[in-house]
User: Fold this.
Amino acid sequence: MGTKYQHVQDLWRDDEVASLDPVARLVYRSNKLGADQRITNTGGGNTSSKLPGKDPLTGESVPVLWVKGSGGDLRTSTRENFSSLYQDRVVGLQNIYAARADKGLKSQAEDDMVGMYTHATFNLNPRATSIDTPLHSFIPARHVDHMHPNAVISIAASARCEEITREVFGGAMAYVPWMRPGFELGLAMQEICGKNPAATGIMMGQHGFISWADDDGECYRRTLGFIEQAGAHIEAKYAAKGGDAAAFGGGVFESLPEEVRRKVLARLLPWLRGQVSKQKRFVGTVQDDHRILRFVNSKDAPRLAELGTSCPDHFLRTKIKPLYVAPDAALKDFGDAAIAAFAEHLKAKLSAGLDQYRKDYAGYYERCKRANSPAMRDPNPTVVLLPSIGMVAWGKDKSESRVTAEFYNCAVEVMRGAEAIDRYIALPQQEAFDIEYWLLEEAKLQRMPAEKELARQVIVVIGAGSGIGRETALRLSREGAHIVCVDL
Assistant:
């Protein structure tokens, strides 16, 4: 059995990896890291191994960088999700980059390097290479993990990040301030490794962390160890400040009983879906568990919600900030008439809030846009926070809305941790914009397959238990619709 931890789960088993080839061991490590959402979120993080490979042209053994490619999820990744590159050629790109007069952070030269990775492809591997490839290539270790755990991001998103990193990890973890992922960040990490030979990890300000080792099992457990240290530090500080009772400044709203929440949402959600679907239809996920209610009911929720999220992985799903709308007065009468009136009151508050949110988003776009920025995207919120009720997350389908909810849950946990140890800070809006509207992100969106004919639709099929009704439901689902099957 694996080592016991309190804040992560050790899933590595030596007997399971003993018979695996080196690339399969990388896949195994990735799957185990991705299986624990306390380690990284859906689709987030990447892993790599530098392994010997037989050059198909020369027959010689050459170092090959295997790194999780663009897209995909660590938990479900297979060998096909990993790109393979000649390690020496990726490192050699530093010479090409150094010769560019226009090099620098967020420069055209930096973006152009992404297109150069294909020239370093080993054995015609078709998997698109990750933007994080330089981070993995330039770290002088065989195995590298880059993760986005809530506990570590809580430190990364705190005002005194560098100081707290030293306090918690000592010299084992170095520090790099926020930099957009890419070639410059890889170069910065290479320099940091040279200056901090005792370090086995780097805290990435307002982002996550990276860790490494020359043995893959040691790399896995080193990653877990850093997260465990961060989690233990945060929970000790959190408890000392009063724990749940004092979280986010303490509660100012009371949660409605579950049955009442359902009745309010039944009146609210069809209308709200129409409001946020002005440009494209959305499908929602409601979440009202203890952690979300603790946040939305709190004194500090309006302040923290307005600050927005920190980790780039979060706000690409959740937008720059959520919409927070509180009622003018708590619902005390749980009769049907009072619930109906309360729902109408919330509609009025939400209508005004949505108008302001769209204006704020347009203002954010106008303030931050570059000459070559893509056109403004849908200005409607993808996360709506309702004190006493919970959170509604939106996406193009049920799966995406669930991931949106997951990501804002991560953001809430990051804010909880950062406020426990220090003070939470979000990315500056310009930095957030330069990720959200990055041309490389836009290109990724454009490569996504076209939506099916009935995508984003919710269709009720009556008599779906058998016969024509069942076949109709199956056909509609194949066309991308969300199906509610009803039968008597």
Q: What stands out?
A: The chain has three domains: 14-240, 249-443, 449-488. The first strand starts at residue 46 and ends at 54. The radius of gyration is 24 Å.
